[in-house]
Write a structure and sequence with these properties.
70 residues; globular; 5 helices
C-alpha cells in the first residue's frame, strides 16, 4: 500500500526517503520488513499526506492471550 502511495506522488522511493528524513538504504529495509519506520519519519510521512492507516499496515501487531498488544 505504501509503494502505491509513493507511486501516486510520482516520486522515487529514494526521494520519499529523503523527504521523511531517512537514508535510502534504511527505508529500503523498512519496505522489505526488516526495519521499523521511526516515529519522526511516520510524522513526516503523514505530513506529506500518507494516511496513518497505510503506515500502520507496515507494523502488524501481535496479540497475546490476554489480548494486550505487544
Amino acid at each position: 500500500a505504501l509503494r502505491f502511495r509513493i507511486e501516486q506522488y510520482d516520486i522515487s522511493q529514494n526521494e520519499f526517503a529523503r523527504r521523511i528524513g531517512m537514508q535510502h538504504s534504511h527505508f529500503s529495509e523498512v519496505m522489505n520488513g526488516k526495519r521499523r519506520l521511526p516515529l519522526d519519519a511516520i510524522r513526516k510521512a503523514v505530513g506529506l499526506g500518507i494516511p496513518a492507516k497505510v503506515l500502520l499496515q507496515l507494523f502488524p501487531c501481535e496479540i497475546n492471550e490476554s489480548m494486550e498488544i505487544e
